């Protein structure tokens, strides 16, 4: 087997092929083995339970495993990382506590790599750049703000972006996070006056109404047991606005 396993539902027919599970609310599975399950998170579904009590992906995965394998009692599913509610894309969950611990350690050491596609309003003057700064979260209104070093509660944030395509006053950008702060991409892109399309919370005067065009399309990590390097790719909803303005398929490849 190769050093890096790629799973792309549009390009390959293998164990990683996306397949809808039986129930309407069941997760779309990109890959599954005895240790991990990789799924596509729908937009506007929470990653895990929160104070809202709304439906969430973690509970969907638990339900799927319980019903599919007829497991008695509570089913263990380890939450390794999160995506913001309006963000869709690829996520991995651990099926054992050992796998969860090892994946969490990769998150800590930076071996766990997530990449995003975002449709931005306008085109940045610098079509490729690294953005750094400090962000502070207001837990009362669940808003994140640009801040300064030394401010109580402010955390360092860094990402890099690259413009890939342009169309109708918008651009498609690839974004790689160096830090995993809440709402980070949305806040930092709005901070340079090029908010994510559909971001009515942070977009300000340049906000364009619609579904948030932010998608976690690539996830790479080392398998917690086999130690193989794994890569999972997941295409945004290419028939929806504004994604349909861009040619996405060539981008979603190993």
Summarize the structure.
This protein has helices at 57-68, 97-109, 184-191; strands at residues 4-7, 19-20, 28-32, 36-41, 78-79, 88-94, 113-121, 128-138, 143-147, 155-167, 170-177, 214-222, 229-233. It is mainly beta.
Give an overview of the whole structure:
The protein has 254 residues and is mostly beta strands. It has one domain: Pseudouridine synthase, CATH 3.30.2350.10. 13% of the residues lie in helices and 34% in strands. The chain contains 3 helices and 13 strands, in the order ββββαββαβββββαββ. Strands 1, 2, 3, 4, 5, 6, 7, 8, 9, 10, 11, 12 and 13 form a 13-stranded mixed β-sheet that branches. Strand 2 and strand 3 (28-32) form a beta hairpin. Residues 1-22 have low confidence and may be disordered.
* Residue share in helix: 10-25%
Name the CATH superfamily assignment. Pseudouridine synthase
User: Remind me, CATH topology?
Assistant: Pseudouridine synthase
| Rg measurement, Å | 18 Å
Distance between the termini: 15 Å
Count of discrete domains: 1
CATH class: Alpha Beta
* Low-confidence blocks of residues: 1-22
Q: Topology as H/E string? A: EEEEHEEHEEEEEHEE
Give the helices and strands, then pairings:
Elements (H helix, E strand, L loop, with lengths): L3 E4 L11 E2 L7 E5 L3 E6 L15 H12 L9 E2 L8 E7 L2 H13 L3 E9 L6 E11 L4 E5 L7 E13 L2 E8 L6 H8 L22 E9 L6 E5 L21
Parallel strand pairs: 1-13, 6-12
Antiparallel strand pairs: 2-3, 3-4, 4-6, 5-6, 7-11, 7-12, 8-9, 8-10, 10-11, 12-13
């Amino acid at each position: 087997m190769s050093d890096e396993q790629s799973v792309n539902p549009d390009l390959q027919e293998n164990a990683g092929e996306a397949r809808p599970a039986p129930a309407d609310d069941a997760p779309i599975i990109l890959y599954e083995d005895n240790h991990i399950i990789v799924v596509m998170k729908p937009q506007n579904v929470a990653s895990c339970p929160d104070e809202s009590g709304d439906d969430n992906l973690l509970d969907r995965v638990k339900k799927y495993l319980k019903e599919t394998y007829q497991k008695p009692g509570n089913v263990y599913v380890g939450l390794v990382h999160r995506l913001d509610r309006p963000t869709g894309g690829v996520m991995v969950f651990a099926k054992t506590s050992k796998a969860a611990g090892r994946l969490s350690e990769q998150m800590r050491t930076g071996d766990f790599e997530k990449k995003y596609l975002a449709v931005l309003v306008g085109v940045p003057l610098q079509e490729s750049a690294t953005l750094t700064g400090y962000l502070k979260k207001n837990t009362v209104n669940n808003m994140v703000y640009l801040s300064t070093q030394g401010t109580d509660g402010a955390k360092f944030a860094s990402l890099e972006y690259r413009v890939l395509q342009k169309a109708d006053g918008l651009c498609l950008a690839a974004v790689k996070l160096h830090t995993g702060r809440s709402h980070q991409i949305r806040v930092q892109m709005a901070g340079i006056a090029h908010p994510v399309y559909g971001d009515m919370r942070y977009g300000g005067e340049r906000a364009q109404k619609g579904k948030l065009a932010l998608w976690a399309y690539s996830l790479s990590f080392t398998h917690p047991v086999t130690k193989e390097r794994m890569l999972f790719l997941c295409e945004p909803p290419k028939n929806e606005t504004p994604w349909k303005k861009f040619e996405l398929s060539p981008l979603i490849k190993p």
